[in-house]
Amino acid sequence: MMKFAWDNYKRYAWGQNELRPLTRNGHIGNMFGGLRGASIVDSLDTLYIMGLMEEYEEAKEWVQNNLNLISNGEASLFEVNIRYVGGLLSAYYLTGAEIFKQKVVELGEKLLPAFNTPTGIPRGVINLGSSGTSWSWGWASAGSSILAEFGTLHLEFLHLSQLSGNPLFTEKVMNIRKLLNKIEKPHGLYPNFLSPVSGNWVQHHVSIGGLGDSFYEYLIKSYLMSDKTDQEAKKMYYSAMEAIETNLVQKSPGGLTYVAEWRGDGHLACFSGGMIGIGADDGPAEQKQHYLDLAAEITHTCHESYSRSATKLGPEAFRFDAGAEATATRLSDRYYILRPEVIESYMYMWRLTHDPKYRQWGWEAVEALEKHCRVDAGFSGIRDVYASTVSHDNMQQSFFLSETLKYLYLLFSDDDLLPLEDWVFNTEAHPLPVIRKTCLQEHGAKQDHGQTDLE
Ligand code: DMJ
Fold first, then answer.
1. Which member of 155, 322, 365, 427 has the greatest number of CB atoms within 10 A?
2. 202-215 b/e with 16+ CB inside 10 Å = b?
3. If we measure between CA atoms, which residue out of 310, 278, 307, 302 comes closest to residue 390?
4. pTM of the complete model beyond 0.90
5. Which ligand 1 atom sits nearest the alpha carbon of residue 267?
6. Using an 8 Å Cβ cutoff, are 178 and 121 in contact?
7. Which residues have C-beta atoms less than 6 Å from ligand 1?
8. Is 327 helix (H, G, I), strand (E, B) or coil?
9. Closest C-alpha to ligand 1, atom 11
10. Whose CA is nearest to atom 4 of ligand 1?
11. How confident is the model at residue 451, as a pLDDT?
12. What pLDDT score does 439 carry?
């Protein structure tokens, strides 16, 4: 599947951001501020891990000769960070090739002006040119910044400091952490919108789906990536989890566990099965089993959202009201754009429990993708998961190559391929090594000699 997705991207959209498989051309979009090759940068580590070495070499060569970071466009800080910074960091750590280190540090430096706000909380949109001007998204309430955006920089920025020796990257994200730690949290929850000017919440809506999701993910992963030394992240994560459980976790009349705000974006929130699973073991002793059970229940609910559709793929949003149970109620919520979150949770739950049902569920997803999303020139999202005659959306998202296919591959691989004790996946599924306090220097030296460290 990866080879097919890649070959078609190469044939019809090489150097552009994403493939449009029906019209057989490329898509550039406006998320990456003039940066190109999103599918290439997002695929480097997947190709490498899968042993598609010829394809990996082509991708590397493109980065070397064509990834132009001199751009004046307006980019999403979050998207550039998770896809480009994350993709290049992983490629460097897996392969040791210097070019990735050079490019990622150069790109990281271009992101620094985004933090020049009265509070140091970055705005969502940044000009990648020399002005470094930044803006808030027009749709975000009253010039606010978004929790899942400024809260999803920590892992990558720590590694940027690690690689460049420049402490500024770490300082920027530690400042965000400090503010979030200090500010009052209604019912212990973190609302989605914060003013980068006053440092106050702009309104009180909370979500572990879009707008909130990866902030929580990065708390537990910061702790794990620090070799379990980042006690502050640990404390923030488990307090947030407690508040989420008390205020938001519910059971439907049909016995499905869900998070109360799953009204607008159920699919995105399905990453939380995996997150709660990887956090279970370090939780309070009396809660460990409970967290593992909760993770399994949420993953089960997400699987239900797939198995209740005609295509066996899940809708973008599913609900638990007006008689609905894990199904979309609005026409506009019925699409599937090759998203990874449900499969991501299968992969983590497989690693944590080895219950064969997670592989079965992953295989159902493979069959459904092959049947409904594979077209002659790539993979495409579909507009209605409940219609057995599908209509395609003509887009092969870069996260399909970076996440969906990588998590599927890992689900069917042995646990010692990228062991969870040694690697933490960023929110775009790019693996980053745990920073061992004891052997930092040794690790750096090894990577500089270009050794791989997959197992
Ligand atoms: C990806 O870019 C990342 O997983 C992000 O955290 C959420 N959205 C897409 C996939 O759905």
1. 155
2. beeebbbbbbbbbb
3. 310
4. yes
5. 11
6. no
7. 82, 214, 268, 339-340, 399, 403, 427-428
8. strand
9. 339
10. 428
11. 40
12. 54
Q: What pLDDT shows up at residue 264? A: 62
| pLDDT at site 212 | 83
Q: How far is the CA of 314 from the centre of ligand 1 (A)?
A: 15
pLDDT at site 452: 44
423: helix, strand or coil? strand
The reported pLDDT for the residue numbered 262 is: 67
Residue 319 DSSP label: B
For the annotated catalytic residues, the residue numbers are: 79, 213, 316, 341
Q: What is the structure's pLDDT at 209?
A: 77
| 341 CA closest ligand 1 atom index | 11
Please return the burial class of 262, using the count of CB atoms within 10 Å of its CB with bins 0-12, 13-18 and 19+. Answer: buried
- What is the pLDDT, as a whole number, of residue 208? 78
Query: Is the sign of the CA dihedral 147, 264, 208, 260 positive or negative?
Result: positive
Q: How many Å lie between the centroid of ligand 1 and the Cα of residue 285?
A: 31
Residue minimizing CA distance to atom 10 of ligand 1: 339
Query: Between the CA of residue 124 and those of 117, 181, 255, 270, 417, what are the distances in Å?
Result: 12, 21, 38, 24, 35
pLDDT for position 54: 98
Sign (positive or negative) of CA dihedral 397, 276, 269, 297: positive
**Probe residue for ligand 1, chosen from 17, 268, 313, 344 as the CB with the greatest number of ligand atoms within 8 Å:** 268
3-state SS track over 195-241: CCCCCCEEECCCCCCCCCHHHHHHHHHHHHHCCCCCHHHHHHHHHHH
Ligand 1: which residue has its CA nearest to atom 6? 427
Distance (Å, whole) CA 70 – CA 180: 33
**Which residue from 403, 404, 402, 406 is spatially nearest to 417, judged by alpha carbons?**
406
- CA of residue 439 to ligand 1 center, whole Å: 32
Among the listed residues 400, 401, 323, the one whose alpha carbon sits nearest the alpha carbon of residue 56: 401
Which residues are known binding-site members for Ca(2+)? Answer: 427
Weakly modelled stretches of the chain, pLDDT under 70: 262-264, 439-455
Q: Which atom of ligand 1 is nearest to the CA of 79?
A: 2
Residue recorded with tokens 């930044």: 134
Estimate the crossing angle of helix 168-182 against helix 154-164, to 10 degrees.
150
DSSP one-letter code for 421: T
